[in-house]
Write a structure and sequence with these properties.
There is one protein chain. The protein is 29% helix and 16% strand. The protein is built from 16 helices and 20 strands. Strand 10, helix 7 and strand 11 form a beta-alpha-beta unit. The two termini are 33 Å apart. Bound molecules: 1-deoxynojirimycin.
Length: 530
């Protein structure tokens, strides 16, 4: 069994609701994903991470699971999932499911039984109190919800419809392991584990992340489920740092393959309003954080290289000047994909998709955005400021439908899309990008080919890392080295122009159509030096 096989994967995240609709109901589905497998194969990715598509009342768009064993009818059937797993394999793609093990939906049978009586066998699956403390839910308001039938409160770190599971209960843990094994036996490659740092929580002590039993539980999860096979696992960790990350990823500890960290984004958050009011981006601050990750113990850590996902507004909007959208989209990918770690592409990155264009507060669908419109005003923002905060930060920005064709609705659906499709009807889309050798899509395909090429594989996977041109505060520039071979990246993370240093070597990747002696706005070069 090759336990580090995942190090050769490039993962593509699909947000199933917004990827491809096959039946005209305006919501993406599994059959839609199946129809796009040739596209994904051609892109060159090797694994697909699907945001949750289990049965759910969708209070938090599927991150509230009502049945771990069934696909929600809006996405299709269990047979569709079987077909997807099988057909994806034929296209060289393996499926990663998003497992939400910190909480269920309040519509889950376990919770329905647990809330009906203190005598329920599922009572111990959840967290209860007659004297709730002051912990606040991430989506706003108290994290405790009154349950009339049993005259006490249940704990929910997220929406009231997402009661937290009690990981102290062995019975509950075994029930979750059974669910994971059910999907592993069906042939899925692994899991993205939602807010996994929360599972060791001790609410009575106000400990929500990194609880005392967290790693013991993760080791048990590993041993009882995916640890027995060749797999990939990615934990979502908002609070881990470079040191605590190694507790998850040190192969000797047998927990997870890798974790997502978010301190590169958090570095720009406002001390009072958090992510809802970010201060201006500074490439140097960002760069210092991602470089530091490259220097953590190679034996014990493995990075995740991503710019976007379904929870954060598009990096193109956050960090770049959209006047240079096309160059910047290419630069973002090329500047980080050659670092040590697994590159993740979020659907639409490969065509340079940008944020949605929500005209009115009623256009948002996400519970977090809807709640925060009020919360931000209560915290002191004017109505206008709160609206602007949502326009920049709401998660719906990243969830708008994929742009496949230039037709109205972008070929995502024949019906009415569940979420606004964004601005610029005649803009970029897959079918146009396909025809253009200098498109963002063509660049992504080329970059992935280079990443997978055997000639560079060892440098990219195992090579040492050395930052270059540190005095240039708007650059991301570094060298990866393996024996005598070197790969050098020079990226201008700004709309300014600099003189281009001379680098001996072959240009592998470049995002402008011509070459000058300058490093132009968002220009990036990748060189190979032997
Ligand atoms: C993280 C998920 O990515 C997010 O979409 C969700 O709202 C929370 N976890 C709660 O499950």
């Amino acid at each position: 069994m090759n336990r580090s096989r995942f190090k050769d994967d490039i993962v593509y995240q699909i947000y199933p609701r917004s990827f491809q609709d096959s039946n005209g109901d305006g919501i993406g589905d599994l059959k839609g994903i199946i129809s796009r497998l040739p596209y994904l194969e051609k892109l060159g990715v090797t694994a697909l991470w699907l945001s949750p598509c289990f049965k759910s009342p969708m209070e938090d768009m599927g991150y509230d699971i009502a049945d771990y064993y069934s696909i929600d009818p809006v996405f299709g059937t269990n047979e569709d999932m079987d077909e997807l797993i099988k057909k994806a394999k034929k296209h060289g793609l393996r499926i990663i499911l998003d497992m939400v093990l910190n909480h269920t939906s309040k519509e889950h049978e376990w919770f329905k039984s647990a809330r009906s009586s203190k005598e329920s066998p599922y009572r111990e699956f959840y967290i209860w109190s007659e004297t709730p403390n002051d912990i606040q839910s991430t989506f706003g308001g108290s994290a405790w919800e009154w349950n009339e039938q049993t005259k006490d409160y249940y704990f929910h770190l997220y929406a009231p419809g997402q009661p937290d599971l009690n990981w102290e209960s062995r019975k509950m843990r075994n029930a979750l392991y059974d669910a994971c094994n059910y999907w592993l036996e069906k042939g899925v490659y692994g899991f993205r584990l939602d807010v996994i740092e929360n599972i060791g929580k001790e609410v009575e002590n106000h400990i929500l992340q990194n609880g005392p039993h967290l790693h013991e539980r993760l080791h048990e999860l590993n041993q009882k489920t995916f640890g027995r096979k060749e797999s990939i696992t990615i934990g979502e960790c908002w609070c881990a740092d470079n040191n605590t990350r190694m507790l998850y990823t040190d192969p000797k500890r047998e927990e997870l393959s890798m974790v997502f960290l978010f301190n590169d984004w958090g570095a720009f958050h406002d001390p009072y309003y958090g992510k809802w009011k970010c201060r201006p981006f500074e490439p140097k601050i960002y760069r210092d954080i991602i470089y530091a990750r490259q220097f953590t113990d190679k034996e014990k850590s493995w990075d995740t290289l991503f710019w976007n996902n379904h929870d954060i507004p598009r990096a193109l909007n956050r960090y770049t000047d959209l006047a240079y959208r096309k160059q910047a989209a290419k630069m973002l990918f090329a500047s980080t994909m050659f670092l040590r770690g697994t590159p993740f592409i979020y659907q639409g990155d490969e065509i340079g998709m940008v944020n949605g264009h929500f005209q009115s507060i009623n256009d948002y669908q996400d519970i977090e955005a809807i709640n925060h419109y009020q919360i931000l005003q209560e915290k002191g923002m004017s109505e206008e400021e709160a609206k602007e905060a949502l326009e920049k930060t709401a998660r719906d920005n990243a969830r708008i439908p994929m742009r496949w064709t230039a037709r109205k609705g972008y070929g995502f659906t024949k019906g009415k899309p569940w979420l606004d499709v964004g601005k610029d009807e005649k803009g970029y889309c897959v079918s146009e990008e396909e025809k253009d050798p200098s498109s963002v899509l063509s660049f992504y395909r080329k970059a992935i080919k280079i990443w997978k090429n055997k000639a560079y594989r060892k440098i990219i996977r195992d090579g040492d890392f050395q930052p270059d041109y540190l005095e240039k505060e708007e650059w991301i520039a570094y060298t990866r080295m393996y024996k005598e071979k070197r790969l050098r990246v020079i990226a201008n993370f700004s709309a300014h122009t600099y003189p281009l240093p001379e680098i001996p070597g072959k240009i592998l990747l470049h995002n402008y159509d011509d070459q000058t002696n300058e490093l132009r706005p968002y220009e990036v070069f990748v060189f190979f030096v032997e």
